[in-house]
Write a structure and sequence with these properties.
Distance between the termini: 59 Å
Radius of gyration: 23 Å
Number of strands: 19
Helix content: 25-40%
Bound molecules: S-adenosyl-L-homocysteine, iron/sulfur cluster, FE3-S4 cluster
Strand content: 15-25%
Length: 445
Amino acid sequence: MYNIAMAKYLIKTYGCQMNLHESEKLAGVLENAGFSATDKENEADVIVFNTCCIRESAEQKIYAHIGALKSIYKKNPNLIVAVCGCMAQEKGTSDIIQKKFPFVKIVFGTHNLTKFKEYLDKYNLSKKRVFEIWENEKDIDENCPKYRTSGYNAWVNISYGCNNFCTYCIVPYVRGRERSRDMNDIINEVKELVHNGYKYITLLGQNVNSYGNDIDDKNVTFANLLDKLSNLDGNFKIKFMTSHPKDLNDEVINVIAKKSKICKVIHLPCQSGSTKILKAMNRRYSREEYIALIDKIKTKIKDVVLTSDFIVGFPGETEEDFIQTCSLVEYCKYNSIFAFMYSKRKGTIAEKMDNQIDIATKRQRVNKLLAIQHQITKEINLNLKDSIHNVIIEKTLDNNQYLAKSDCGKTIIVNADSKLEENQFYDIKITKITNNKIFGKLIGD
Ligand code: SAH
Ligand code: SF4
Ligand code: F3S
């Protein structure tokens, strides 16, 4: 048994922003219980794996990392190892952990994350392993403490779960059906965060655009939420992710275009440039509809930054289908993309599809797509010269130089004669672009 006054925890987070924020909730629970954070495994009394199962590679990595803790556990048999998150929620994982990793003492899923302290107490009292996975989602727990570790950015959930059932994706199975948070709860949380000095508020949902669809009140929509949040007082900006193209409507585009507090940055995963594959993926838009949406966004939102996700090697993807993905990427001119090789996930519809693609073809396609995007990103960066950006200062360097970040996450080295404050916004002009660095200078210096 550890001494709670000196007990230390370490949380290892895998997967998406949603999980990063959920780890802030786990940390909140532990901090409230008197624990403090450490980044050293051999110092920790509790090590938590907050896991992801979006692709097989993610899972294998996590199993390897859990296995590697065995030697730490041998030196410290009082160590409590816990596994939670999406992989823990996946059918079968709990049994594998129970058999393969006897030093893992607590396993819980995505629906009971905020109950972690109870499981810890239960284990400490009984010294019996606690495995608790809830099959279904429950009401949203608004009272979970949060211990934020994301600097000037604060993550804010607007919805949980997903109803889309893209045929390749495991998220709806491990995160449950879509549940929107009450609009006033979100607004109050954002008010408090802004009051506490956070400069970016990033709204999180698997599909932010369907926010409110599960709430009867017709005024509870993503467009209205954005509008209300952007009318709040304070010097802050709003970001959001992820947008599903099928639900990104004109009201949302208009409010983004109109409100200065909303970053002109949209992550709009496309997944494939082939209508045939999009249909098989159950994405519910065609290549033409997606392109029309991109055209509309570019016309309505000046200087918008677009990013996307693609999956190559989905079952049945022919060379022609893949070429369509390449041509779509060339057309859309994204700032950046993520490209993934399709990974079979247990229980999904695509798992059973014929014509699974071999790994060599997948690898070749993903490399080709990334090479195309690399060239586009390079061209976009070169065209930045003389453009004006409102950036946040992250760090003071030597010689009147500062490290700054743009709204879309580009790092810019800013020169300024005047003294700039960290964590504040400034207007800068891009002056020089080298192979891997972007330079700017303060406007009005
Ligand atoms: N809700 C978000 C994020 C989903 S997960 C969205 O709809 O975009 C993030 C990305 O992982 C997806 O956009 C998709 O490109 C990728 N992904 C999901 N399942 C996958 C699988 N089985 N194999 C490979 N990539 C996958
Ligand atoms: Fe997965 Fe599709 Fe839901 Fe995104 S929208 S989480 S890709 S099922
Ligand atoms: Fe996120 Fe991975 Fe779960 S991407 S929702 S942590 S499966």
